[in-house]
Amino acid sequence: MTTADIGAEIATEIEEFDPLGEKFVNSPWTEFKRMRESCRAYRHVGTLMPVVSFFRDSDLREIRADWETWSSARLAESNKHGLRAGALMVGQDPPDHTKYRNIIAPMFMPGRIGALQPAIDGHVKKLLDQAIDAGEIDFMEDIGGALATATIGTICGIPEQDWPLIREITVIFARDYGKAPLYKEPQPEVEARLREAEAKLLPFIVSHIQNLRKSNTPSILLDVADQVEDNFAVMGLCALIIGAGVDTSANLMVNGLWELMQKPDQMRWLRNNPDKINQAVEECIRCRGSLRRSERVAARDLEFDGVQINRGDTVMIWNASASRDPEVVPDRPDEFDVQRVAKRHMGFGAGIHMCIGNVLARLEARTLYSELIRRTSRTEETHGADSYEHWGNGVTDAAKRYSVSLHS
Ligand code: HEM
Question: pTM, whole model, 2 decimals?
């Protein structure tokens, strides 16, 4: 039986799950619930590459724990249609993954990231100074995107005049990242956009590292270049740090505010309980973790709950679904509740590939929300329900625009 036959057979039992389709883009949470309840493994129908998706927390944990069966090494086909730079580490298995992770992880530990607090305080203050009482702002570009870019710019020692370039490139990632295996037909325009972004980012990294060396400016990228011998690996790791660190954090900050704005009683509660900011940020990550899925590749043939999985199949593990699995969150899993203590979620993944930037992302969101609550008495959506616009990339939870006004 061919992959297409298997897909067609399953499709007769379960209504199609299409993360790039309009239904999912408009209501992913209903779709995740349906899929968690319908099956443990779902073979997609009609995709260019064979893809199988998983939705339940326990299955994701099992898959994440067994890298020998569920490899992170990307298929050449996936890289061809999607993003090649930055496929290092996130797209590797031990021992290569371990080698690089051991170099990079210490750079993102709480001690080193905590030292960034004054710089992040400064960025937040400046951005809020400009935004408060300025009338309508776009919280995505003017605050979330700007803060995440400034933060990555700071740790990477990137001069301020180059921040717009970094933002431009990461916006392309936000729009197109991670969709490649799910395409139903080739998308030359999308591939061209990704190639163009890479073609700008990689030479920028080369010349930036040369400048850092000359000027002896502290930078995580220089630390990477000093500790990793292979030039290709230096490029990949630097691109990963820049690519993974901007739009993910920006989306968290924007989507978290959106959730709070839909529930004025929760916003009021947070304003009255500013010491609960950490808890609020955690609930934002649980409900709106920006990377909705991680990608794996089946390293051998196997059967999973009656579904035949073939070596080389692309595997989508839906973090955003696992974070709302009632087996883990029995009490109103689909409801954002700022008073909840979200102890267990998949927003940053789990296992050997767990997000290396989680301390940094939490620090940014915590600092922004604390200051926002302290400095404003009121926040308002300036175009009602149309204030928020999504990129329509079902694979990442990416905001395109969020029009609000902030009042002192
Ligand atoms: C809210 C913000 C963020 C979210 C939701 C997020 C989410 C994730 C997830 C789910 C993974 C796991 C990927 C996998 O299992 O294959 C991951 C990995 C990673 N993240 Fe993040 N991330 C965020 C922010 C950041 C930041 C700020 C950085 C760095 C500056 C970063 C750097 C990385 C890196 C390097 C990896 C790969 C780790 C590895 O393969 O060992 N992330 N992230």
Answer: 0.93
